[in-house]
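Q: How do we represent a protein-ligand complex in a form that can be generated token by token?
A: Start from the inputs.
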Amino acid sequence: MAPHPEVPPGRRRPLVEGRTPGHRRTGPPRRPRARRSSTDRRLTLPFGVARAEVTDFDVAVVGGGPAGSATARRLALDGYRVVVLERSRFSTPRVGESLSPAVTPSLRALGVREPFDALGPRPSYGVRSSWGTDSSSSTLSDPHGPGWYVDRAAFDRMLASAAEAAGASVRLGVVCREVRPGGAGWTLRLSTGGEVSARVVVDATGRAARLGRRRDAERIAFDRLVAVTGFAPDPDPGGFGLVETVPEGWWYCAPAGAGRLVAMLLTDADLARSGRLTTSSEWAARLGPRTAERVGPAGTLRVVPARSHRLHRREFTEPWVAVGDAAFAVDPITGDGVAKALRGAADAAGAVVALLGGDTGPLRAYEDALDRETTAYLHRRADFYAAEDRWPDAEFWRRRHAVAARR
Ligand SMILES: Cc1cc2nc3c(=O)[nH]c(=O)nc-3n(C[C@H](O)[C@H](O)[C@H](O)COP(=O)(O)OP(=O)(O)OC[C@H]3O[C@@H](n4cnc5c(N)ncnc54)[C@H](O)[C@@H]3O)c2cc1C
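Then emit the structure tokens for the protein with flavin-adenine dinucleotide bound:
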């Protein structure tokens, strides 16, 4: 990946925000990296001899989405040897293009505001919604300023570049197949056939929570939500995001960059199957009236898992930390996933540093805080769904009202 323009490799920039008590340097001593200068001597390797890849790290971050890259950047800036393993190459469109205003302070704290601006994000002053009523309304302004519409794949790539620029080794197109205890910590088996070892592993694999589910944690799912998603040409690239409820669930459409509009029907996995909502004809037939005004024929539909869950940690004996959606994933109606992932990275990095020093206290505090956040989220989610009561007999809404009624 191309080096990040802002912070030259090897240069450490102190983070100004979001440290937890665990972010004290309780881990191993920093290993100062040599700075390069224009007068450095270079060694030219003959007949294609390649530099042997480093395989031994302080921290291995599995997943290079916003949570993984932000955690890796923080740790690398603090001098730890970090590898990021990312399955994709950020070359296909990704969902999650509407960033809430709350991302702005996190981008600043990470020192990535400049490369973010270089992506040409479009300000978002709110989302039009038709939820519980036939009329539509917009959200009000936020103290952090506007939110943003971005090309999500480009945004994720920018954050991975920022992790690399901070000194992390970012390996794209690499799937982590297995993580097993070994040596001084963990051995990770890679799709390339190789292995890397690390003292602490970070599960940043998103809603799949691939690592944590196989360790001392239980994934508690709160629903069966999926997003049946299509990308269509955007007739109005300056337009608003739009949320609209229908008996089968709710629609969201928004500008997704590069002249595209993303449109998704959020419904339950079993309802999508039984109603054949993943076929183009049934999907298009369920478009809400306002959404239909904006969404033309979409290409191939993708079913994106969107269920909310909490990865509940039972033990703290093993040195791993879950961050972002892997730790706690929320319903996309909150519009807060990326902001939450970036915020969580600060605390997760603190927990990792403490684990490197043998202290599990900050990890416990981090998990306790996520438990409290989960409780608050479940109340908020119940409020959202209780506000739509036009289809009490429709299965999607009946399920959600039943949950809200138990409060
Ligand atoms: C339908 C939908 C719409 C959404 N819309 C919004 C929105 O508009 N705004 C918003 O803020 N949030 C939105 N979200 C939520 C947001 O996308 C997530 O909260 C956010 O992406 C979480 O970041 P993350 O880094 O934890 O996980 P992810 O972004 O999911 O990143 C996980 C990464 O791990 C990689 N990975 C997984 N397994 C492996 C493996 N074994 N080896 C190597 N790499 C692996 C994946 O390729 C991926 O890059 C939406 C979510 C859904 C489901």
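The two ends are 49 Å apart (CA to CA). The pocket of flavin-adenine dinucleotide is lined by residues 62-68, 85-88, 95-100, 175-176, 204-206, 208, 210, 227, 264, 304, 306, 324-326, 332, 335-339, 341 (CB under 6 Å).
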